[in-house]
Design a protein that fits this description.
Oligomer: heterodimer
Low-confidence stretches of chain B: none
Cofactor (chain A): Zn(2+)
Strand content of chain A: 25-35%
Order of helices and strands of chain A: EEEHHEEEEEEEHHEHEHEEHEHEHHEHE
Number of strands of chain A: 18
CATH architecture of chain B: Alpha-Beta Complex
Strand order of the largest sheet of chain B: 5-4-1-6-8-7-9
Mean pLDDT of chain B: 92
Pfam family, one (chain A): ADH_N
Function (chain A): Catalyzes the NADPH dependent reduction of D-ribulose 5-phosphate to D-ribitol 5-phosphate.
InterPro entries (chain A): ADH-like_C (IPR013149), ADH-like_N (IPR013154), GroES-like_sf (IPR011032), NAD(P)-bd_dom_sf (IPR036291), TarJ (IPR034710)
Largest interface: A-B, 24 and 25 residues
Number of helices of chain B: 8
CATH superfamily of the largest domain in chain A: Medium-chain alcohol dehydrogenases, catalytic domain
CATH class of chain B: Alpha Beta
Distance between the termini of chain B: 38 Å
CATH superfamily of chain B: Spore Coat Polysaccharide Biosynthesis Protein SpsA, Chain A
Protein name (chain A): Ribulose-5-phosphate reductase
Structural class of chain B: alpha/beta
Mean pLDDT of chain A: 96
CATH architecture of the largest domain in chain A: Alpha-Beta Complex
Number of domains of chain A: 2
CATH topology of chain B: Spore Coat Polysaccharide Biosynthesis Protein SpsA, Chain A
Number of strands of chain B: 9
Structural class of chain A: alpha/beta
Radius of gyration of chain B: 18 Å
Low-confidence stretches of chain A: none
Number of helices of chain A: 11
Largest sheet of chain B: 7 strands, mixed
Order of helices and strands of chain B: EEEHEHEHEHEEHHHEH
Number of domains of chain B: 1
Strand content of chain B: 15-25%
Radius of gyration of chain A: 20 Å
Chain lengths: 341, 235
C-alpha cells in the first residue's frame, strides 16, 4: 500500500512523502487518531538539535506519542477497529538483564526512524497494546510520557532504600506532574515537595505537601529522595541543588534531557553516599502497566487529563505547522493533534 | 451500508502503445489497481470493495488481487459497462441483487488509477453522506481555464476562484443515483459522463470534499514517471 508520510525535511517544514507498505508482511496497520507533541519533537521542529544531528536524521516523521485504531492485520489477531497505543521503542534483541529501552540496538520512533505522523503506520504486533474503552483517547495520546514516568518510579522503588517519608521533585512541567501522580499512587503516605519556577504551574500539584520556588527553598529543607524533571540548561542547577539538600544515602532519579554535559558536585555525592540513576524511555511492560493504571484509577486519570492544553484538528500540512506553533506558545500542558489528515 | 466501488473499466486508450490497461501497469513494483484496492482495505466501514473491470480482464484482475492481497474476502470483481456510468450501475445492481440496497446504501466510487488517495479523503467522502446524497472530491483550479466553443477562439475565461478540478472519489446514495440515472433519456445518458453531474443537472446538491494535488490520475505515460518519482520521494 502506498502510505503517505508527513516528514519534517528541515526545521518548520513538513513535506508529504510516500512509502510502500507490504500488507503481506507480518505487520498490523494502525490509523493514528490522537497524537501528542513532545519537547523532543519540538527540538527537531525548531531546529534546536545540533546541525549534524538534523542532517543525519531528517527527513523524518515526528511524534512518538500516539494512539490509533487497527485497520488491518494480516494475521487477523487484532480486531479491526480495536483502539491501541503504539509503543515507539522497537527492540531487535532480547536481554535477560537489560531492559529493551536501554539496549543500544533498539530503535525509537521519531528519533531513529519515522514517527507516527503518517496516514497509516505499519506496526510490529509486539509494539501494540489494546486500550480499554474507559481510557480517554486524548490522554491515551500521551501514554508514552506517562509510561516513562511509571518506568522511572518502578526503578526508583527497586533501587532506593526503604525510608520513603519525603520525596522532592525538581520541575513543574508535565513530566514532574506525571511522576508526582504515580509516586502518590505507589506511596500514598509520602510527602511530596515540588521545586519549580512557575507559581501557577506549581499550584496544579494539589496532592503535594508543599511547593517552593527554586530560589526560595528553605535552608533546613531536606528529603529522603529526589527526582529531577528539569532538563535543558536548568539541569546543572537542579541536580546540584538536589545534591545539597538531599539526606545521605538518598536516591536521585535523573529524567531531564540536556544537550550539554552537566558538572556535578561529586564530592558531596561521595560524602553523602548518594545513588544517582538515569532513566529514559520505556518498554512494553511499562506501557502495559500504565494502561492498567489509567484504566483502574479514575481520579489519577482525571488529574492527568487536566494536562491537556489544546486539541487541534489536523487535516493538512498547514494544520500540522499550526499545531506545532501553538505548542511553542502554550503556557504548559500537552498539545494533542486530532489526526484527520 | 457503505461499499467501495473501484472503477477499472478503462482500456487505456490514452496510454500509447502499452499492451495492458493502465490500471495493471506496475508502479513501485506493484500494479496500480492493487495500490488502490489496498487503500480501500484500510477503511473498515466498507462492507465490500467492488472492483469493476473490462470483461476480458476479469480473470486477470481476480488473479492479481489473489496474488497480492492475502485477506481478500471483502473484494468482489465484476464486469464493467460500456460507459463509466454503466460500469457504476453494475455495482449498484450487484448490491440490489444481494437484496441489501436501500435509501441509506452508500457507494464510494473511485478511479482505479488514483492510488495516492488518502484515508482522510475516503473518510470525508463517507462522512459527508450524513448530510447529503452526493459528493465530489475536488482541488482548487490552479490553471486558468479557457472555454472555447469552436476550438479556434476563446468564448470566455471563467473566474478561476470559482473553479475546481474534479478528482475521485465521488460518493453517492446508491439508490438515489440509480433512480436519477434511470430517469435520464438515452441522449442525456450519452452526454452525462460524470455521475456527480447527474445529481447536479437534476437540481440536487453535490457537496465538495477537499482532495489533494497529489491524488493524481495516472492517464498518460508521463504520469507513470511522476508516480514513480512520488514513491521514490524524488519530487
Amino acid at each position: 500500500m502506498l502510505n503517505t508520510i508527513y516528514r519534517l525535511v528541515k526545521p518548520r517544514n513538513f513535506e508529504i512523502e510516500f512509502e510502500e507498505i507490504d500488507l503481506n508482511d507480518d505487520v498490523v496497520i494502525v490509523r493514528p487518531s490522537f497524537l501528542s507533541i513532545c519537547n523532543a519533537d519540538q527540538r527537531y521542529y525548531q531546529g534546536k538539535r545540533a546541525p549534524e544531528v538534523l542532517k543525519k536524521k531528517l527527513p523524518m516523521a515526528l511524534i512518538h506519542e500516539a494512539v490509533g485504531e487497527v485497520v488491518y492485520d494480516s494475521r487477523e489477531e487484532f480486531d479491526v477497529g480495536q483502539k491501541v497505543v503504539m509503543i515507539p521503542n522497537t527492540p531487535f534483541e532480547k536481554d535477560s538483564v537489560i531492559a529493551e529501552n536501554y539496549l543500544r540496538s533498539s530503535k525509537f520512533r521519531a528519533s531513529g526512524f519515522d514517527g507516527f505522523m503518517q496516514d497509516n503506520v505499519a506496526m510490529r504486533r509486539d509494539r501494540l497494546i489494546e486500550l480499554p474503552d474507559n481510557i480517554d483517547l486524548r490522554v491515551g495520546a500521551f501514554i508514552e510520557i506517562i509510561s516513562v514516568s511509571y518506568h522511572t518510579v518502578q526503578r526508583f522503588l527497586k533501587f532506593s532504600h526503604r525510608r520513603k517519608d519525603s520525596i522532592a521533585i525538581w520541575g513543574d512541567g508535565n513530566l514532574a506532574f506525571l511522576v508526582s501522580i504515580i509516586l502518590k499512587h505507589e506511596l500514598p503516605d509520602v510527602k511530596l515537595y515540588i521545586m519549580g519556577i512557575h507559581d501557577d504551574k506549581m499550584a496544579g500539584f494539589v496532592f503535594a505537601e508543599d511547593t517552593f520556588h527554586v530560589n526560595e527553598i528553605p535552608e533546613n529543607m531536606t528529603f529522603d529522595h529526589a527526582f529531577e524533571c528539569v532538563g535543558g540548561q536548568g539541569c546543572e542547577m537542579a541536580d546540584n541543588q538536589i545534591i545539597d539538600y538531599i539526606r545521605p544515602e538518598g536516591s536521585i532519579a535523573l529524567m531531564g534531557v540536556s544537550e550539554n554535559r552537566v558538572p556535578l558536585n561529586t564530592r558531596m555525592v561521595l560524602e553523602k553516599g548518594l545513588k544517582i540513576f538515569g532513566s529514559s524511555r520505556s518498554g512494553y511492560e511499562d506501557f502495559k502497566n500504565t494502561v492498567e493504571f489509567l484504566s483502574q484509577n479514575d481520579k489519577a486519570a482525571q488529574l492527568i487529563a487536566n494536562l491537556i492544553d489544546s486539541v487541534i484538528d489536523v487535516r493538512s500540512v498547514e494544520d500540522m505547522n499550526r499545531a506545532f506553533e501553538s505548542d511553542i506558545k502554550k503556557a504548559g500542558g500537552k498539545t494533542i493533534m486530532k489526526w484527520n489528515v | 451500508m457503505v461499499y467501495g466501488v473501484i472503477l477499472a473499466g478503462g482500456i487505456g486508450s490514452r496510454m500509447g502503445s502499452v499492451e495492458k490497461p493502465k490500471q495493471f501497469i506496475n508502479i513501485g513494483g506493484k500494479p496500480i489497481i492493487i495500490h488502490t484496492v489496498e487503500k480501500f482495505m484500510m477503511i473498515s466501514r466498507f462492507e465490500k470493495i467492488i472492483v469493476l473491470c473490462p470483461e476480458d480482464w476479469i480473470e486477470y484482475t481476480d488473479e492479481i488481487i489473489s496474488k497480492y492481497i492475502k485477506n481478500r474476502e471483502k473484494i468482489v470483481v465484476l464486469k464493467g459497462g460500456d460507459t463509466r456510468n454503466e460500469t457504476l450501475m453494475n455495482a449498484v445492481k450487484y448490491i440490489d441483487e444481494k437484496g441489501v440496497l436501500d435509501d441509506e446504501t452508500v457507494i464510494v466510487t473511485h478511479d482505479a488509477v488514483r492510488p495516492f488517495v488518502t484515508t482522510r479523503i475516503l473518510k470525508d467522502n463517507i462522512e459527508s453522506m450524513d448530510f447529503c446524497d452526493a459528493c465530489d472530491t475536488v482541488v482548487a483550479a490552479t490553471d486558468t481555464i479557457v472555454e472555447s466553443f469552436d476550438g479556434q477562439t476563446i468564448s470566455q475565461i471563467p473566474d478561476r476562484k470559482f473553479l475546481y478540478q474534479g478528482q475521485t472519489p465521488q460518493t453517492f446514495k446508491a439508490k438515489k443515483l440509480w433512480e436519477l440515472y434511470e430517469a435520464l433519456t438515452k441522449a442525456e445518458k450519452d452526454i452525462l459522463t460524470d455521475a456527480a453531474k447527474i445529481f447536479a443537472i437534476k437540481g440536487q446538491k453535490v457537496h465538495l470534499v477537499s482532495g489533494e494535488t497529489y491524488n493524481i490520475k495516472i492517464t498518460y505515460p508521463y504520469d507513470i514517471t511522476v508516480a514513480e518519482a512520488l514513491i521514490k520521494n524524488e519530487i
